[in-house]
Write a structure and sequence with these properties.
25% strand; alpha+beta; 4 helices; four-stranded antiparallel β-sheet
Length: 142
């Protein structure tokens, strides 16, 4: 047993060397690209670019939730009803499985959101103030 151990070790060492990766025969690969591909990428990037002046930045704030339910149609109706009465204030439909929520406004303080919530109570039931990430740029209600 002990005599065959060095022979076994040498065989394992040699087979390990035989399975090692070979160096490739080539060093450089040249890819020829159609010039139209570069133009396509530039055109697509320009179309998808958001100018820095219009990009919305988000921060912690508050929104007023005016609808919470599992009916997408009712959520859309609540949003449209809000937009008709308050066209200058942003509204959002948030889907958190299985609930649709309609949230409105981008308020930096809870007090501003509570004041606006009180104005909405006659048109929407129930309403509540929700902490959320709000959009800083664009129209906000104060």
């Amino acid at each position: 047993m002990f005599r065959s151990f060095p022979l076994l070790f040498i065989l394992l060492f040699l087979t390990g060397q035989l399975c090692a990766q070979q160096q490739p025969a080539y060093k450089n690969i040249t890819v020829k690209e159609d010039p139209q591909i570069e133009q396509y990428y530039k055109k697509a990037a320009a179309a998808n670019a958001i100018p820095a002046t219009t990009a919305a930045q988000s921060t912690k704030g508050f929104r007023v939730q005016i609808y919470n339910g599992n009916d997408r149609t009712k959520a859309s109706e609540a949003k449209m009803k809000f937009i008709k009465k308050h066209p200058g204030i942003r509204s959002y439909i948030v889907f958190n499985n299985p609930q649709y929520r309609v949230r409105v406004g981008d308020f930096t303080t809870r007090e501003d959101a509570e004041t606006f919530r009180e104005k909405l109570q006659n048109d929407f039931q129930p309403t509540m103030v929700i902490p959320d990430l709000i959009n800083v740029s664009g129209k906000t209600h104060k």
